[in-house]
């Protein structure tokens, strides 16, 4: 009796407890992959016929019908009686009684799949319609381009993330353009890299559905995880999928070079005239200090005939082994002076003066050194000490400089206009100059560079610091604002034509979205 009772309970769980419905569709898709999907997917891409698994319960007949969008019947079939032999497990592990019926191959179109369940007497027990659409056409693609951070080299054909020992990469991102799908619509994308051995590595990528593009930042586009060889040619591209699961590839052959070729920094010993390798904290005897950067000729693409290595012409002289770039370093360094060297892939080696550290000999004359600076904003009548400001409009009319005292007259001027200057007498520490910087229309940014030096002598003339002014007098435009009272939400789209896709994207980026609501009583809220 105990065994019989257990069987009755089990059978009850598979019949009375199961509701009639379609469990899943199964088919071989356009990628030649066996696929099982829920009817909630709506869009499917079977190459030929597809199977429909229907939950019915015991002692039931199943009728499946396929209807066109106008309601006309184009196909129908009726199953045999569902018995205890029709116990089935779905792909998700759910046990049920039902049948799997095969729908013949259909063309691309939208349909209604109707499931009708009848009992032993032919009486209809349940009926349910499912929207269904077949789409076998992959999305459309266009071209591959790139965006640039700046500099001269690098493209979609050859690029790099920031190599070890370098400071920047000229290519900002790879852009896959012209993406669309007239059928089920775009669903998702993957960025992939295939190496010389045919090994493919990939990661998800985001689709910009407004512009029909995928942008892959260069840090991802040439990451070590996807491209393990630092110097190699790869196949790079995206897989683009629509909602039905169809896929298309947009790719090209590109070179990745994440290597910084060697460079040597040397300093001239003023006591002997010889060049010695730079060491942090080394003693120097003459100001300005002579410094040079040596790079092997064989590391230049123009010499080695490859796509790997230096591509710039930033050098003044050469010997049998090296191309040599020489510059003057004024001690102490107070400005952001630097020198740049670039690889063909767009890796940027930047040597900042403030990254070099010297110890002056006791008798060496020291250049001016700013310790503080202020600019006067006459439109708001305030002195500003911050190095950078972001404003709608502004007028800067004065600049005040505080510097270490020197045994000579110091001179400070703007780079924009040499007539805007002031001098600090011997042993004193400050001066003030009259300037005229107006930012009252359109948008933009400007570096207010200051030069320091010795009055009457250009020996110490050097960049001594700067202010940055970012202004924007052009408001963004709200295109659409929709209020959903039920969910108490506001959906808004806005366009800011001043926004740029470059290194200074943050300068005019739309960052704050606010809405003010007025209720029936006239009360305002944000």
What is the averaged pLDDT score?
Answer: 93
Query: What's the CATH architecture of the largest domain?
Result: Sandwich
Helix content: under 10%
Radius of gyration: 36 Å
The tally of beta strands, per DSSP, is 42
| Overall tally of domains | 5
Largest beta sheet: strand ordering: 2-1-4-8-7
Q: Please identify the top-level CATH class of the largest domain.
A: Mainly Beta
Largest sheet features: 5 strands, antiparallel
Class per helix and strand makeup = mainly beta
What quaternary form is this?
A: single chain
Helical stretch tally? 3
Provide the low-confidence segments as ranges. 1-17
Shape: elongated
How much of the residues is beta strand, in percent?
A: over 45%
- CATH fold name of the largest domain: Immunoglobulin-like
Compose a concise summary of this entry:
The protein is mainly beta and 526 residues long.
């Amino acid at each position: 009796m105990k065994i019989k009772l257990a069987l009755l309970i089990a059978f009850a769980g598979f019949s009375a407890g199961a509701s009639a419905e379609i469990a899943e569709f199964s088919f071989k898709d356009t990628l030649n992959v066996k696929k099982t999907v829920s009817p909630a997917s709506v869009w499917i891409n079977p190459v030929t016929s597809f199977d429909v698994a229907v939950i019915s319960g015991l002692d039931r007949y199943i009728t499946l019908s396929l209807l066109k969008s106008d309601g006309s019947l184009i196909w129908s079939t009726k199953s045999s009686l569902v018995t205890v032999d029709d116990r089935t497990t779905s792909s998700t592990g759910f046990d049920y009684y039902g049948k799997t019926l095969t729908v013949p191959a259909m063309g691309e179109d939208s349909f209604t799949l109707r499931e009708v369940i009848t009992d032993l007497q032919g009486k209809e027990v349940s009926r349910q319609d499912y929207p269904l659409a077949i789409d076998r056409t992959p999305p459309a693609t266009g071209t591959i381009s790139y965006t640039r951070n700046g500099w001269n080299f690098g493209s979609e054909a050859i690029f790099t993330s920031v190599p070890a020992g370098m400071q920047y990469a000229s290519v900002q991102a790879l852009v896959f353009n012209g993406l669309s799908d007239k059928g089920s619509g775009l669903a998702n994308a993957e960025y992939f890299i295939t190496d010389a051995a045919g090994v493919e590595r990939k990661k998800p990528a985001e689709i910009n559905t407004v512009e029909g593009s995928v942008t892959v930042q260069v840090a991802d586009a040439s990451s070590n995880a996807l491209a393990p060889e630092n110097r190699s040619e790869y196949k790079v591209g995206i897989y683009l999928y629509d909602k039905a699961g169809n896929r298309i590839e947009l790719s090209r052959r590109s070179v990745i070079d994440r290597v910084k070729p060697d460079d040597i920094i040397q300093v001239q010993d003023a006591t002997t005239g010889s060049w010695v390798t730079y060491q942090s904290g080394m003693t120097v005897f003459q100001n300005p200090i002579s410094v040079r950067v040596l790079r092997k000729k064989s590391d230049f693409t123009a010499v080695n005939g490859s796509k790997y290595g230096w591509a710039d012409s930033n050098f003044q002289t050469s010997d049998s082994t090296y191309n040599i770039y020489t510059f003057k370093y004024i001690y102490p360094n107070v400005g952001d002076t630097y020198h740049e060297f670039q690889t063909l892939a767009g890796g940027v080696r930047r040597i900042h003066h403030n990254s070099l550290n010297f110890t002056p000999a006791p008798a060496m004359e020291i250049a001016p050194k700013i310790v503080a600076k202020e600019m006067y904003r006459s439109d708001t009548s305030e002195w500003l000490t911050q190095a950078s400001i972001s404003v709608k409009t502004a007028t800067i009319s004065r600049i005040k400089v505080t510097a270490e005292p020197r045994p000579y007259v110091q001179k400070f001027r703007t780079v924009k206009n040499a007539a805007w200057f002031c001098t600090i007498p011997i042993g004193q520490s400050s001066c003030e100059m009259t300037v005229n910087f107006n930012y009252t229309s359109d948008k933009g940014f400007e570096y207010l560079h200051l030069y320091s030096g010795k009055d009457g002598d250009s020996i110490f003339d050097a960049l001594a610091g700067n202010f940055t002014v970012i202004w924007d007098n052009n408001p963004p435009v709200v295109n659409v604002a929709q209020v959903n009272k039920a969910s108490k939400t506001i959906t808004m789209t806005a366009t800011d034509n001043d926004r740029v896709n470059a290194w200074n994207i943050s300068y005019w980026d739309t960052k704050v979205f606010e809405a003010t609501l007025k209720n029936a009583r006239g009360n305002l809220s944000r």
